[in-house]
Amino acid sequence: MGEPSIVLEPGERLLWSGRPLRIALTGLEWYRVAFGAVLVVVVFAAHGMPFANGPVPLFDVAFVLCGLAVTWVPVGRRVWVTRRAVYAVTDERIVVADRGTGRTRASEYRSALAPPVVRIGRDGTATLSFTRRDAPGAALGVPMRRRRPAIRLFAVPAVEELRELTEPGPR
Q1: What pLDDT score does 5 carry?
Q2: pLDDT at position 49
Q3: Which residues of 48-73 are buried (b: 16+ CB within 10 A; e: fewer)?
Q4: Which residue from 78, 86, 91, 130 could staple onto 151, CB 3.0 to 4.6 Å apart?
């Protein structure tokens, strides 16, 4: 899906579209990957090298596989989903769609979103996080950085242009 026209509703005008430029692991994801690797090393070190002293007990193999599933699968899934994402900013909505299938993953009307929280990376790309104005915590004065974002655009270029385009309200 090169051009995200599939995700446009009738009468909508596409203002910007793009994809993540670089997908990097976050701090929590690095800890998950490291914990999974340590888990494998500890189980195999407890039995010596696998297959050197006979077969590894089935319980240990199941323990390692479950541990890897819990630690590595969420990381791999987020990287896979982010790699296939395409972002679209229209005059009415902000849309995250799947590049392969064209299916919309997330869509919010811009008028319902608070201004984005922008985190600029070392390489010049940025992550834009949007929360809904009526999200829990808004009335209590919870800082926007503590609320769960409705839409997040990862590793996008042209940060200033996007910041101007994503200001709440109709275009």
Answers
A1: 61
A2: 60
A3: eeeeeeeebeeeeeeebeebbeebbe
A4: 130
Structure tokens at 37: 């690797």
Using DSSP's 3-state secondary structure scheme, residue 84 falls into: coil
Residue 93: which of 161, 159, 4, 19 has the closest Cα? 4
Residues with Cβ within 8 Å of 10's Cβ and at least 6 positions away in sequence, in order, are none
Q: What is the pLDDT of residue 1?
A: 43
- Structure token digits, residue 49: 């090298």
CA–CA separation, 67 vs 41, rounded Å?
A: 12
Looking at residue 163, its amino acid is R
**pLDDT tens digits, 16-51:** 888 888 777 777 888 888 888 888 788 777 766 655
Q: Are 150 and 108 in contact (CB under 8 A)?
A: yes
Distance between CA atoms of 128 and 113, rounded to whole angstroms? Answer: 12
CA 19, CA 16: separation in Å to the nearest integer?
A: 11
Ranges of H-type helices in the chain:
27-46, 58-83, 159-165
The tens digit of pLDDT for each residue in 121-148 reads: 777 788 888 888 776 655 555 555 555 6
Please count the other Cβ atoms lying within 10 Å of the Cβ belonging to residue 123: 11
